[in-house]
Amino acid sequence: MTSTKSTAISLRVNGETHSLTVDNRTTLLDALRERLDLIGTKKGCDQGQCGACTVLLDGRRVNSCLQLAVAAEGREVTTVEGVADGERLHPVQQAFLDLDGYQCGYCTSGQICSAVAVIEELAREWPSAATEDVRRPPEVSEEEIRERMSGNLCRCGAYVNIVRAVTQAAKNEQVTA
Amino acid sequence: MREFDYRRAADAHEAVALLSGEPEARFLGGGTNLVDLMKTGVENPALLVDVRGLPLDRVEVADDGALTIGATMTNSDLAAHPEVRHRYPALAEALLAGASGQLRNMATVGGNLLQRTRCGYFTDLSRPCNKREPGSGCSALDGEHHNHAILGWSEHCVATNPSDMAVALAAFDAVVRVLTAEGSAEIPLAEFYLPVGDTPHRETALPDGALITGVTLPAATVAARSRYRKVRERASYAFANGSIAAALHVEDGTVRDVRIAFGAVASRPWRAREAERALIGGPATPEAFAAAADAELAAARPLAHNGYKVPLIRNLVVSTLTELQEAAR
Amino acid sequence: MTTPAAPPRTSATGTPHTRREGRAKVTGEARYAADIPFAELAHGWLVTSTVARGRIRSIDTDAVLAMPGVLAVLHHGNALRLTPGAGVMGPDANLQLLQDDRVPHVGWPVALVVAETQEQAREGADALVITYDEEPHDTAFRADHPGLRPTTPSPLAMPDVDQGDPDAELAASAVVVDREYTTPEEFHNAMEPHAAMARWENGRLEVVDSNQGSYAVAQVLAKLFSLDADKVRVRSEHVGGGFGSKGLRLPHAVLAAMATTVLNRPVRVVLTRRQMFSLVGHRPATAQRVRLGADADGRLRVLEHETASATSTVHEYAEQSTRHSRILYAADAFRLRTRVVPLDVPTPSFMRAPGWTTGSFAVESAMDELAAEAGVDPIALRIRNEPEVGPVSGLPFSSRNLVGCLEEGARRFGWADRDPRPGVRRDGRWLLGTGVASSAHSAGVGASTAAITAEADGTFTVRVTAADIGTGARTALSQIAADALDVSPESVRIRIADSDFGPAWLAGGSMGTASWAWAITEAAVALRKKLADVIDVPPEGITAGADTTELLGAREQRESHGYGAQFAEVAVDPLSGEVRVRRMLGIFAVGRVINPLTARSQLVGGMTWGLSMALHEEGARDDVSGGLANGDLAGYHVAANADVPVIEADWVEDHDTYNPSGIKGLGEIGIVGGAAAIANAVWHATGVRHRHLPISLDRVLNGGRR
């Protein structure tokens, strides 16, 4: 077998296709940050223990620090830079801004990507550990949102406002849906 | 992290073929555990065979009601699957109690079964660890072990298996389906995880080079009335200090069927067969539940700093079975 | 020409403003130290010791230097010599990196591998073989350790106090509480790992850094590398949290500067999460003994507080836990002691409300025990012991409204309906209880400079070496400048975090906004004077500056503090050991609040830390190896979203002009007393007193012990 420690891949990120050759060790997080200059996605622990690196992969939230870039070929990546509709902020972004759902901002990109996916997961009626009865559809409640957002640590302690922001965005989504 | 080759397998047979004869090769599923272990240097594969894209990502329902769960199905998809939510709610709850939404979207069923212990010494290359480096010693035995095993450990290793999913699978008599170059095989979950003994580095009965293709859950009426309860040091996003998967079927005050398995107490999900035996055919009362827990925990050997797990598990047995019984009324 | 009179402008301060950098933060455009690209950037990866004490015997660099992409391996045998004596607050030997072969603790920097890419640097660091001559180590902290000793006198050290006759007062007391409380090692864990990029640019060392004060960092680097102060420029754009960890210890910046000097190309050094557990300070483990003696009605006769904390052998940091005892309550006699135990552990440091946080847990828990013993309501007990002047110093208070906080908090929390008996409320499997504690934090001001330029287009540019580590400083300072200039905040441009702007206090000690605001206000006065005679502003603008050093020196001594009262309701499952906080309320008296939106966020953030400290945080040190057994975010738990309920923070009137801006600072007070309020609520729920943090489920199952 021929040895190939690096691989030529094409990555689809925020609707754009990028061709690049990556060291097989390169995580999606590092590829975004170091190769594509998409620095919005943050490295908080590099071990899947904080959620700062959360991006959407085929529409689902993942920790990009544990996702090898080479294994993301052919999949659709959405980062915080691709969440807004042009100049118009996504309702989650606007709610974070209005309700002060952050302080230092370092976990914010991950929180926002996660929140966008949480709203989608609720719409799909996925249960969570906070769902009283997993046989029934979950409600859109602060308790559900707290549980679902728990994979995104915030050391400034902005959780209270994060929950308000995500709840507001989720309820708006329900109204418009 | 050392450099490695990367291959993507188109189907399960190709995956097995790619791995065969490559002792330093590993299958890559969601990568949530393997990639982390590669970063810390615990795993140093020369080749990764990516199996995440294999067409093993769905649940099939057999005529007798048994479910066969594809190995590359994500933990999220499995937890959201209607058959699981309605017929094996404890499995859905166990999956949802694990990790975070992000990690559950990545982690596969096969990978979850093979995840390694979260013992801090296992991932600290500067410390002795028999699981990582056979014969080097166990740092946890006389070190930090407040969340280590109380059952089934040996002086060679006191680490616990971190999986929540596997606890529910153990309660429901799951069977692991594997593929090797010789063909496919089935391994009951009860035999899948090996006793610690003096070989803590050998964790499963999976043959060398074998690929997990799926898990079969036999049909079980009792499973429809089941719970998974997990106790941990945070309300979410933390490994268990103790957990229980339990299912209970009571008729006229008598236990007809019961399933109990514990998590975070041993090197493997701990099926509480002593407790089950003590309960079957007897009264469904808190006293009987407590006596059954005691029967199982008679074998417990707590370490210096994890004795709290004994009352914790005992209490979880009583409260979870009581809750199941009350819900059935 | 006549112009209609402008309508009176609404004050910018005191009204809520969303963050100036808010859009950048929610879109991912905000750049942190490791985000900024540089051509020819090389990456440094730190290698740290695996032994707790000893000497480096050998470092085998040849194999690593031969690896692809590796550019250099810096270690004590080849590193640049650094000038001794550097430090932000006095000399700190932790800055003397790679200078000798001594290893003082696990996780001490022993080498830096620099390579073309991160992956290559990391692989080189992993492959570097280092051998040590190990020596026996001791990392086990306890109050009766034979190495226990008084602290070394310093401007930061609280002197011991012997006031009145404590023994006689104890003997005469109707009620005595005499207890020991402990708190574990706790770690800041700002979400942004410490990072710096350093390069030489036009004969100057330029550093893009993650820190709490660029001027202080520039000064330290200049001293370490024997450079003129104006030959170093340190700046940051955004900083992802600090909490005290980004002020004093700068291994990333020092090593990046060293590597760029050796390699003559830009070098970035980013700490890993694990490295943050040994290199940037932490809150040390404490053991505290509190003795309270009181009359039957709860009036304190004596307050004794002896505190011991762990420190390192590199640099003495003493946790000043008696700060709380010096200011909160009146008593006839005081006996206060601060002790340290030097061990083979990393050097502790300031961590959000240092001293106050640990001390308040002990003293506010003891006050609750006294209330229960004396049969006095915990709030009434605190009000009964309200002092007229500083209880130890005798100095007047600049202002003090603790009583207002307790009373307003009690009203809003519903305290009046509380049944004081413990262990009598149940909600299903949960036992319920409520608790209260007082909060306080010093309200200091540090000397700062600031400059404001009136631009030709009618706008204003403020320059001050402030840092916005998530506090909202940018926004608050622009509000302050707008009011001082009597213009709208939209016409104020604020530039911060650049050492070229001149000396300024750090974002620390809850002193940042107060310190910078004073300088900005003075600069605005000077600018308005200058502008009074100006008809046309020239293209380069007109600039006026200010320096508050002299103003500050002219102030009389006062006891100047913020105060607060924290309330918590908890649920405890005695069968599983789980503890959940159901709600928290904090009412604070913190002077003038500039931006209610971000101020509330900071207070709630501090209270969230209090919750996290009470229930989760604990470094588990393995005394066999001397290292941490849980040094990552899966092992070291900080509160996750699901742990945090609705937390409300609000404030009462507190007019204080000791600092002319009226600002007292509120970045830290939110954590003070929080853990005690929760521990007191756990007692009220269960009847079991938790004197050792965290209140983990094993302790709950074991009746408060391990």
Automatic annotation (TrEMBL), chain A:
<dbReference type="InterPro" id="IPR001041">
    <property type="entry name" value="2Fe-2S_ferredoxin-type"/>
</dbReference>
<dbReference type="InterPro" id="IPR036010">
    <property type="entry name" value="2Fe-2S_ferredoxin-like_sf"/>
</dbReference>
<dbReference type="InterPro" id="IPR052914">
    <property type="entry name" value="Aldehyde_Oxdr_Iron-Sulfur"/>
</dbReference>
<dbReference type="InterPro" id="IPR036884">
    <property type="entry name" value="2Fe-2S-bd_dom_sf"/>
</dbReference>
<dbReference type="InterPro" id="IPR002888">
    <property type="entry name" value="2Fe-2S-bd"/>
</dbReference>
<keyword id="KW-0560">Oxidoreductase</keyword>
<feature type="domain" description="2Fe-2S ferredoxin-type">
    <location>
        <begin position="7"/>
        <end position="83"/>
    </location>
</feature>
<dbReference type="InterPro" id="IPR012675">
    <property type="entry name" value="Beta-grasp_dom_sf"/>
</dbReference>
<keyword id="KW-0479">Metal-binding</keyword>
<keyword id="KW-0408">Iron</keyword>
<dbReference type="Pfam" id="PF00111">
    <property type="entry name" value="Fer2"/>
</dbReference>
<dbReference type="Pfam" id="PF01799">
    <property type="entry name" value="Fer2_2"/>
</dbReference>
<dbReference type="InterPro" id="IPR006058">
    <property type="entry name" value="2Fe2S_fd_BS"/>
</dbReference>
<protein>
    <submittedName>
        <fullName>2Fe-2S iron-sulfur cluster-binding protein</fullName>
    </submittedName>
</protein>
UniProtKB/TrEMBL annotation, chain B:
<dbReference type="InterPro" id="IPR036318">
    <property type="entry name" value="FAD-bd_PCMH-like_sf"/>
</dbReference>
<dbReference type="InterPro" id="IPR036683">
    <property type="entry name" value="CO_DH_flav_C_dom_sf"/>
</dbReference>
<dbReference type="Pfam" id="PF00941">
    <property type="entry name" value="FAD_binding_5"/>
</dbReference>
<dbReference type="InterPro" id="IPR016166">
    <property type="entry name" value="FAD-bd_PCMH"/>
</dbReference>
<dbReference type="Pfam" id="PF03450">
    <property type="entry name" value="CO_deh_flav_C"/>
</dbReference>
<feature type="domain" description="FAD-binding PCMH-type">
    <location>
        <begin position="1"/>
        <end position="222"/>
    </location>
</feature>
<dbReference type="InterPro" id="IPR005107">
    <property type="entry name" value="CO_DH_flav_C"/>
</dbReference>
<dbReference type="InterPro" id="IPR016167">
    <property type="entry name" value="FAD-bd_PCMH_sub1"/>
</dbReference>
<dbReference type="InterPro" id="IPR051312">
    <property type="entry name" value="Diverse_Substr_Oxidored"/>
</dbReference>
<dbReference type="InterPro" id="IPR002346">
    <property type="entry name" value="Mopterin_DH_FAD-bd"/>
</dbReference>
<protein>
    <submittedName>
        <fullName>Xanthine dehydrogenase family protein subunit M</fullName>
    </submittedName>
</protein>
<keyword id="KW-0560">Oxidoreductase</keyword>
<dbReference type="InterPro" id="IPR016169">
    <property type="entry name" value="FAD-bd_PCMH_sub2"/>
</dbReference>
UniProtKB/TrEMBL annotation, chain C:
<dbReference type="InterPro" id="IPR008274">
    <property type="entry name" value="AldOxase/xan_DH_MoCoBD1"/>
</dbReference>
<keyword id="KW-0560">Oxidoreductase</keyword>
<dbReference type="InterPro" id="IPR037165">
    <property type="entry name" value="AldOxase/xan_DH_Mopterin-bd_sf"/>
</dbReference>
<feature type="domain" description="Aldehyde oxidase/xanthine dehydrogenase a/b hammerhead">
    <location>
        <begin position="27"/>
        <end position="136"/>
    </location>
</feature>
<dbReference type="InterPro" id="IPR016208">
    <property type="entry name" value="Ald_Oxase/xanthine_DH-like"/>
</dbReference>
<feature type="region of interest" description="Disordered">
    <location>
        <begin position="1"/>
        <end position="24"/>
    </location>
</feature>
<dbReference type="InterPro" id="IPR036856">
    <property type="entry name" value="Ald_Oxase/Xan_DH_a/b_sf"/>
</dbReference>
<dbReference type="Pfam" id="PF02738">
    <property type="entry name" value="MoCoBD_1"/>
</dbReference>
<keyword id="KW-0500">Molybdenum</keyword>
<dbReference type="Pfam" id="PF01315">
    <property type="entry name" value="Ald_Xan_dh_C"/>
</dbReference>
<dbReference type="InterPro" id="IPR046867">
    <property type="entry name" value="AldOxase/xan_DH_MoCoBD2"/>
</dbReference>
<dbReference type="Pfam" id="PF20256">
    <property type="entry name" value="MoCoBD_2"/>
</dbReference>
<feature type="compositionally biased region" description="Low complexity">
    <location>
        <begin position="1"/>
        <end position="16"/>
    </location>
</feature>
<protein>
    <submittedName>
        <fullName>Xanthine dehydrogenase family protein molybdopterin-binding subunit</fullName>
    </submittedName>
</protein>
<dbReference type="InterPro" id="IPR000674">
    <property type="entry name" value="Ald_Oxase/Xan_DH_a/b"/>
</dbReference>
